[in-house]
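fold-stage: in
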Amino acid sequence: MKIEIESDGAGAGTGGVPAYEQVRAQIAEQARGGALPVGYKLPTVRGLAQELGLAANTVAKAYRALEGDGVIETRGRHGTFVAAAGDAAAREASGAAQAFAERAQRLGLSEAAALAAARDALRAAYGDSG
């Protein structure tokens, strides 16, 4: 596992991205990309914090966010592991899409208008490279 933190010394990266978000994003990307396989045991919060030169609370915040996203799972005293995030992420995305479709219908949007709104939101989130 390789994580690089860009810091301004005040807890934010040089681009204004908080250190915990950099940790969260890099672990999520490595897990989803296969660099961190399902079942891979992550370092302890304190261990990773020491390795990265961060406060333990910063790494703990990143781990909590990753667990909430279904990317990692904590198994008590056994440690923290990469979860089968693809399935959890797909289920969550499907649920969000269903909720969006139901809301768009209640608002009286046509299917074409709902699709256009979804495309606009995806472009905003992913940029033009999609």
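fold-stage: in (second)
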Amino acid sequence: MNEQQSPPQASARPGRRGADWMFGGAYGTVLASALLAALGQEGEAFTPFYDASWVLVTAVTAGLAHGYSHHMASHRQESAGYRWRMLVLALWNEWPLIVAALPTVLLLVAAGAFGWNSYEVTAVGLGLNTALLFAWGSLVAVRVGYRLGSALLIGLADATIGLTIIVANALIK
């Protein structure tokens, strides 16, 4: 490259590189776990469809807020059309956060359809999400170049977040 050329502006686009898109998977799973633990209260009627809608609405809202804040943090003086395209791309890049909340949403919908017990649904959901956190952490670590043993330890560290939510749920309720 000669002195007249400038380097490409890869950082100007809010796109995802490598395993970066997997960040949203872990974030969405933690968000769904926390909501699942917080929504059900002992002594109250179990409202799984209502709870499922709140998990989904919160995940979508968090994705929009996260994408918007990334866009604003990297805001540059460009044309309005370019800024709008970058905003749409930044918002689109948050899809993993929303998708990661879907197992919890689907579990709650199934609980409503089949009349499952609140305590069991919460326990299964938190266990499932903890396993998903382990999978996300391990997958990301392998994807970025860690060996399998190290990747599994990283997955275990991520699963610790889910275990923390389980313990907090037990202590608070």
